[in-house]
Amino acid sequence: MKQTYDVTRQHLGDRMYLPGDEREADPSDVKHLVDAGVLTIRAEKAERPVDNKAIKAPRNKAG
Fold this sequence. Notes:
Layout: E1 3-7, E2 11-12, E3 16-17, E4 22-25, H1 31-35, E5 39-41
C-alpha cells in the first residue's frame, strides 16, 4: 500500500525530488528517508465534524 510523503530535502529516488514535492512510495522502501528527515508523512485531511442535529437553532425573539 503506497503512502504520500512531503519532500523536505532534495534527493534522488526514481527521479529527482526537490523540497516541496510530493512523493508516493511504499513505507518499507522509504523508511530510511523518513528516519533521516528527508521525507515527512503527509497528514490526512481532517474530516468535517458531524453536525449535531439534536441541538436546535436558537429562535430569534425579536421577530
